[in-house]
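Title: [Solved] Cation diffusion facilitator family transporter 3D structure

Original question kept below for reference.
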Amino acid sequence: MAGSMTLTLKLAAGSIVVGLTVLVLKLLAWWMTGSVALLSDALESTVNVASAVAALIAVHVAARPADAGHPYGHHKAEFFSAVLEGVMIIVAALLIMREAWRGFLSPPVLESPFEGIAINAAAGLINAVWCWVLITRGRRLKSPALVADGKHLLSDVISSGGVLLGVVLSVLSGWAILDPLLAGLVGLNILRMGWQVTATSLNGLMDEAVPAETLEQIRSIISEEAGGAIEAHDLRTRHAGTVTFIDFHLVVDGQTTVDDAHAICDRIEASLRKLLREAQITIHVEPEHKAKHSGVLVL
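Solution (posted by the thread starter after getting help):
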């Protein structure tokens, strides 16, 4: 777990470096061209830097061990960061749409457009590579903060592509209105992505259960490994960052010894942790008259 958390922290810190580099490049592209679309793109990058800082803080807090005040750990800190990033994506989208509207009312005359396009394209390529790293590694490390940061950068990549298309078409066609028009369309798309990131993260804060596929795997493991028990019921799950919480009631024969019941629980827990390495499992053992004849049947 320590190795995974160290890698997560390094990736979160790397996002700050990448964000600052891309921000400088995009500001340079806007300064050279005067394009409202490129200005909008740069505005989003300022939010990227703030989001990367928030993600680093959240990952650092989530890495803290459980204590007296937080006996279940600090894993949900990453969800707070992910919600914040979703909100920031929405704010960036609104800023872009505002600048697009201003440009629509007074289309700018672009200066040195191709130089600015080249610089902005380089910044977009850096973001594309880094967002792929964050999303793939974040999912592997089960880090909501890194995945949200990656999706945030993905929105930036999409906006950069739209912005570049708008600038190119504006220059080639002479229709200056295309510059702010496409910037506004990109802003609407980013607004949609921001809502998706926020909604997903809020579900995590609300103790959302594990996905249906994972839940079915958990049920199968309990059924296969609970030999000697009668049934398992009231199965509940939730997840927070890298940790999955599982609890259920295990019904055993009234004549089963404490040692035997404990051995069954150990067997179930060992198999569940092969599926979910950082699972925290709570099993409440009950006598047979507590059986509900529902839930997970033991094979």
